Amino acid sequence: MKRCLLGLVCLFVSIYSFGQTLESDRLALVAFYQATGGNNWYDNTGWVVPGSPGDNPCGWYGVTCEGGRVTKLIIEENDIVAPIPAVVGSLSALKHLDLSGAGGEFSYFYGDLPVELGNLTNLEYLDLSGNQLTGVNVSVINNLTNLKHLSLSPYMNWPALPSLANLVNLEYLRLAVEDAAMQGEGSVGAIPAYIGNFTKLKTLIMRHGGVTGTIPSTLGGLTDLEILDLSENKLTGAIPASFNNLTKLTKLDLSHNDLNGPVPNILGIPVAADVRINNNAFTFSGMETNISRLDSYGNQKKFKLTAIIPLRTANNLRTARALGGTLVADFAGGTAANNTYKWYKSGVLVATTVGIQYFNTPDGIYRAEVTNSLVPGLTMVSEDLVLIGMPVTLISFDGRSENNQNKLIWKTSAEINNNGFEIERSADARTFEKIGFVDGSGDTKEDQFYHFTDLNPFATSYYRLKQLDHDGQFEYSKVIMVKSDAVILKVYPNPAQDYLTISGISQKQPFSVVDGNGRVVIEGQVTDKQQINIRKLGAGRYVVRVGEESSRLLINR
Prior knowledge:
This protein is mostly beta strands and about 550 residues long. About 5% of the residues lie in helices and about 35% in strands.
């Protein structure tokens, strides 16, 4: 009886071992090849499909073996357009799996992740970037607790990032979308708090991943970090003070977000590190003391220019037009003594003050430009401020796109001698034209509601109201922007070589091509479906900007 039981055990072990042999790996590779159209791969060197039992797959293109098992599979950028086959989960000895796509039109995996991927518990390296994978089944990656390297590209309609809290051995984590063809509408949501437990991380890249919310201070506890890239997201709030603990950084990129507040003390970051905080909503506050650590900090959002205005009553509204007030530029930040303030009225420089952030002036349309002697690479520019005793109190002015039309709505709380409103439209927020007129209510103290419909809007339209009195005087409202819900900007081909074409433009608009260093290398005016010569540009990644829209471009030669 004992011998019989022993024989059954030996038979079970023999069957199990057979199921975990190089032959089973070969069969899984053959199935993977057939499911992904391997005959069309640009490189399938050595692959023998369907082959014969006993064929050795070690040495096939992208296949590496150790100890009689397949431990590495690299099939990236290989002319594949297919879902990831579930059979990949049968390669149970894999330590390294690279299925990264070209990020282009003709080479990518798409669809849902196979749940079988969670069987690869020996994986230490997983790269699925540059593909068109949905967020479905991403949670199976949480089973891969031996991972040291993980790279993913969020695609269309990604849900918030599922928990990956078990991946405490990660040294490299990348959730990023690099190429225009891959940029989706989804978002990985806020930066998960559990990433603060990934104490072995040396690289954290969440670039262009639709990241929202604030930066958790726990990231400052990842003291082994060498690269931290959170650029081109929707992050708000301040830079955590804990970032001063990141003493091993070689790169910190927080650019192209909506971060604000004073820059905290980051002098603990090495001087040699590349630190970028440009294209946010920072001011000079904190930059003065940290300038030795900042490599790129320009192009901050406009600051709010405020005013102290004398008391005006209904009886002296007309006289008040000449009274003006005091402009205040304290929201530019920094130490006033280090600042130079230039004051513009209707676009014309009217005064320059050094160390004085106040300016007494008559009524008009003003802006301020502020420079700082300790922060030479940044000019803070204010929003326009209308300093005037207006005969009409405009409470709100809004617009929305609906059924290929733009609907404008505005409200007033009091009107004196109001003849009406001219509606003006612009494609670039600089040159406006009249497109309609709505009668005013004359004299009234009651709330009034107005509306106007633009039947033929641009892809992106800018509007302002020109309020007209019966005596011919007029005032302008603020400018609002409305994007069409029907027009989609397209840049093609992508990748490009000698020419590119831009479509989705309703009329001639300014455009520019910006290289990876933020330099404008081509600019001008473009019409719909116009070809643009790019032969002089080198191979690489660029950004094409048309009005307020932008799209990434890859030049490949």
